[in-house]
Structure formats: structure tokens, C-alpha cells
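fyi for ur records
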Amino acid sequence: MIWNRKKPYLAEITFSQLLSGKYSNKEIMHYEISLGDSGIYYEPGDSLAVIPTNDHDLVSAIIDRLDANSSIIPDGQNSSLLELLVSHYEILTPTNRLIFFINENIKHNDLNKAVKSDNKNLLNEFKYGKDVLDFINLDKNLKIDLNLFLTLLKPLQHRAYSITSSYNAYPKKVHLTVSTQRWKNNLRDYHGVCSTFLADKCFKGTKIKIFLIPNRIFKLPKNQEKAVIMIGPGTGLAPFISFLQERKFLRSSGKNWLFFGAQTRMNDFIYKNEILNFKKNKVLQKLDLAFSRDQSKKIYVQDKMYESRAEIFQWLEDGAILYVCGDALKMAKDVDNMLKRIIKDQLDCNEIKSLEYIKNLKKEKRYILDVY
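which gave:
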């Protein structure tokens, strides 16, 4: 059976645990999910898609704002308005269709300026942290036809998470590492759609809709003698736990080097015991940790890379594969810039030569990113 978005598998959560410490600025959760009789088989590097439902409080607030009846079945629909907003439509992130409609039907200088500007960052800044309710509340006098309103939304999307386990190590199970997104703005509480769905509504025994998203590129080498360098701050660590479990199971002879970063060692060193055991049992030959707030000067994974620049370069020269997982906007760019710097330093060359070196790494599939 091939499970997909239209036909997801109903899987049971068998265990969940808070990974981050009491004083952490983040809420990072570990989930274990049974694959039962699904026949789903995954490889390290793959992702699991979870189909969430929307926050009921937000749904109720939107229905109240529309002055609608939750049990009404809108034109052309087979479900009630309540069911549609809970399970079928995206109500956290507003579409441009909704934003442009609002802008055309109310007077709001900041919104109008952001929409009309050639600088797209202006609209992104205006949208930041706001949901659908915020936009329809920009003018409390604005009335929106219910059927029109639904056309301004997009379908509720699945969320994909890098798998944290090796199937060989945990047959018929899959582990996920999820950072729960919560924030406050204008005296309202906001919740990430899927991360809080998992954290607040899914307990042991809860069944959730899932399907596999294979990753053809972010894969361990078939050659077990190949060395790998893994750079994964925060929840970017997830696929590398899977990699290390797999390398341990297969008794791979290739060397493994992990760079992990977070804010504090005491509260943010997720999977600490498992990682230290990998090091103790020589599954990990090298481990570099960067806890940015444990000292006055912030230290990040890219700083740790520079400290070991000669050895990183030698590993690459010897054929190692470099993997990066995590935040695309900042971390991945910082790591990429540091890699360029290391190559320039070690080859004593100009930027053009260092870019050429990186281009060749990518061409040889030895510099592989999974960023979001």
C-alpha cells in the first residue's frame, strides 16, 4: 500500500517526551510513532509528513468574527463550517489572495503601503506573526461573505519532519524531533499548526494521519567506508541521530564527525546521552559542541568548524561527505560562508577557487543540504 496525502496512514503515537530543559527558550519534543501494519519502510534522511488539525480556539474566533453558524454547510461543500476550518483550510498563514482582498476593502495605511511597495520584504514584515484572524480584524467593521472567505484560503497543508530514527534500529517505528512553536503578539497567544497539534492534542494512544516523504539526495553513502561530517544545530540534529543509529547497526567502518549547536548545554543538549554514548562506543570519532550562551562571547557551529579547519579540509580531501541540516535563512548561510573561508585558508586561494571547490563537492554529491 502506498500512503500519501489523499490516503494517509492512521498511526498511533506510542511515546512522547519533552527534550528541552526547564529553563530552555525552546520546547523541543520527541515522538515515537508505530508504523503498525502500514508496510512503511524508510531510510535515514527521509521525512515523515503529519496532517494536523487547526487550533479549535482560533477556529471558533474566526467563526464568531464572520458572524456565522459553525454547523452551516457552505455552498458546494460536504462538511460543516466548523469541520472545514478545523481540518480542511489553512487559517494560520494568510494567503496573498486574502491579504489583497482585505487591502482593497478597508483603509489601512501600513497594509496598503506594504502591498503596493516594490520591496517584498515590507509585506513579509507586515505579515510576520499575524494569522488570518488578525487580517480580518484589521477593520472590525469589514463584513466578508462566508463563501467568498473560503475561496481566499488555501487547503490545510501537511508538515514534514526529518526522521530521527533508523528503521533497522527501530523496526516498524519512527521517531520525530519537533520544536513546538508558540508566540505572543498584541495580547494574543499563537500556536504553530502542527507542532502544537502534536504537543497539545496528541498523547500516548492518539492516532495521527501520516505518510512518508522519501529524500533521494540526503542519504548516507552506500560505501560503508566513506567518512561523513554532519552539521546540525537544534532540531537539525534529527536526521543525524538516524544516520548514527544506522551506521552503528551496519557497523560501518567510515568515520563520523558531528557538529551540534544550541543555546545552553544544561537545557538544550537534546539526545545528550545517546550522542555521548555514540562517542564513547566510537560510533562517533569526533564530536564538536557549540553552546552559544554558556559564555560571554557567543560560539556557534561555524566557529567550531574554523577551529578544526585543517582537519575538516583533510577529511574532505580524503573523500568525506559533508551534510548540513537546519535553518536555511541564517545557519546554512553561515556554515556555507565558513566553508568557503576554510577552503580559501587551506588552499591559500581566492574566492573564485574556493567557490569552484564547493561546486565540485556538490557535483560529486559530497556537500548535501536539507534546510528549511
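The chain has a mean pLDDT of 97. thats all i got for now
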